[in-house]
Amino acid sequence: MPERPLWVPSAERIGASNLTAFRARVERDCGAKTPDFAALHRFSIEQPEKFWIALKDFAGLKAETWGEVALRDKHLMPGASFFPDARLNFAENLLAHAADDSDALVFWGEAEVRRRLSWRELKDEVSRVAAALEGLGVQAGDRVAGYLPNMPEAIVAMLAAASLGATWTSCSPDFGVGGVLDRFGQVEPVVLFAVDGYAYNGKIHDCRVKTAEIARKIPSLKRVVVVEYMGGDARAQIPKAETWESFIAPFPPGPRSFRQLPFAHPLYVLYSSGTTGVPKCIVHGAGGALLKHTVEQRLHCDVRAGDRIFFFSTTGWMMWNWLASGLAAHSTLLLYDGSPFHAGGNILFDFADAENATLFGTSAKFLDAARKSGIEPKKTHRLSSVRTLCSTGSPLAPEGFTYVYEKIKTDVHLASISGGTDICGCFVAGDPGAPVWRGEIQAPGLGMAVEVFGEDGRPVAEGEKGELICTRPFPSLPIGFWNDPGERKYRAAYFERFPGVWHHGDWISRTRSGGYVIHGRSDATLNPGGVRIGTAEIYRVVEDLDEVQESLAVGQDWDNDVRVVLFVVLKKGFVLDEPLREKIYLAVRAGCTPRHVPARIVQVADIPRTISGKITELAVRDVIHGRAIKNKEALANPEALELYKDLPELRV
């Protein structure tokens, strides 16, 4: 741990936070002593019934009834059920404040598109789409899909579907036809919302041919509703298609009722990456998503009424679902569609400044790329409104922490967070009342009984690396997987390795300050000589070198053992010669351990990644071993896998 933290919140900031107000409420209403975050966290996992009741009351969440029981079968996982007798509607909670003309949604598209929807306009538009869906016969439990960018229509369509009790599922329009069919084809939506095209990195991408093929291959579809974003003939050759405008034209805005449904009623279907086979369809309940996002936004990120929340995401990543929930806090959503490096790499910071973002959310990869590109927002932007900067998607290296405070903003709460699509939320997150230490996630999530287990299924000591485990139930436990009789696949995915507790598949360690470090996915962990090594540790060192743009490490079976192979993408003008190889070897040895030093280093032109932007170590590992890749449609750039086939460097 460094001698001093990178940031310490002021006493005034701590006193004004939601977390401080909530702790006072817990002490008053529950009789619990919660003088600090650690005490509140203990309360949240030892008395979950009281904690979640206090949270929903504090946040003013709405329900026809919450029922008499807050948690049933609390010792079972899976099997526990939160608020089993509750009746509520997710969309009603997000639109509870929709009565004025202030901004609800602000949208910037890369192609110079700028739009605003007030709260009143948002509610009116949702009412019209809901009426149109109802007119098609859409009912509770039906699936409604979005093949849309991160734009207002995606939020509106999701809310309209949720208001009826339909289940929303989405992919971003950069998904190929096969990737969409692998996902939507499993859940059989009755309506598909799509877009005619989108802009990315200065290029217009036409989606109409892809949408037509998708529509022809999903027989359950009753209607395809096309948003005319790029201005083409939106309905060209698309079966069962009509425009957004014509779809809602017969239905004037007006008050609508929200269907009251069980706490665990299916709200979302999210998808695993699909790099090892057809994606798993993970079903999330309305109440669980609402409570989980509420605790993370209101307490961990200190989101307040009137705030303006930005998170760079597509509709194919769970952070879009997370962002949407910000409406429940009466916060404005700032939506961006396009390349994050449009306009010289500053478009996201331009957006934050122009629209007074209070929370700026992005990925660790974006921050790393901005650092390497020499982008210094401190010199070019005010960012005076930004109180919280969130980073997720992959581990944020210590250098990324330093970059935020040296080059972006000095007085900001850097909340590095980590969780997953599997829980539609976080296991470990920020604490707005605590110091930020370089390279560390600050705290366990409230309500999350996070542990670090060794191979023997026992907790390990502070500083030791192990498996990320959650030992007690939490509200956003998935309802299950779609079409999984007897929950066989669901239980095998999370509860087989360590029965009765959630095994997430991340490699993690606890720090002396009470924080956490994520070392990468445990299923991609390297194991040379029987010693487990996290890939993120290698990336942190290698990608800090001036010559290296990006890297990927895998284990290659070799001579009855496993050896570490490192692939590097170099910056323009550099080649992997012997001096650079030696520099990388020495850097890894000095920055990690001799065990981390790769046996082979190979230069490549590209690194394969999922459509959500994560590098695919497992796919590369399969390629170098000559194994078939089960689902290339899960990749944004499947052609990159060809770069790893039959490499002469890996035969010796």
Give a summary of the structure in a few sentences.
Helices cover 29% and strands 23% of the residues.
Task: Provide an overview of this structure.
The chain is an alpha/beta fold and 652 residues long. It has two domains: 12-333 and 420-426 and 438-523, ANL, N-terminal domain (Rossmann fold), CATH 3.40.50; 525-650, GMP Synthetase, Chain A, domain 3 (2-Layer Sandwich). The protein contains 20 helices and 31 strands. Strands 5-4-17-16-18-19-20 form a seven-stranded mixed β-sheet, sandwiched between helices. The protein has a five-stranded parallel β-sheet with strand order 7-6-8-11-12, with helices on both faces. A four-stranded antiparallel β-sheet has the order 24-25-27-28. Helix 8 packs parallel to helix 9 (208-217). The mean pLDDT is 93.
Helix count equals 20
Roughly what fraction of the amino acids lie in strands? 15-25%
Q: What can be said about the biggest beta sheet?
A: 7 strands, mixed
CATH topology of the largest domain: Rossmann fold
Number of domains: 2
Report the radius of gyration as a whole number of Å.
Answer: 24 Å
Oligomer: single chain
What would you say the CATH architecture of the largest domain is? 3-Layer(aba) Sandwich
- Overall, the morphology is globular
Mean pLDDT: 93
What order do the strands of the largest sheet run in, or round the barrel if closed?
5-4-17-16-18-19-20
Q: Write down how many β-strands occur, each being a DSSP E stretch of 2 or more residues.
A: 31
* CATH class membership of the largest domain: Alpha Beta
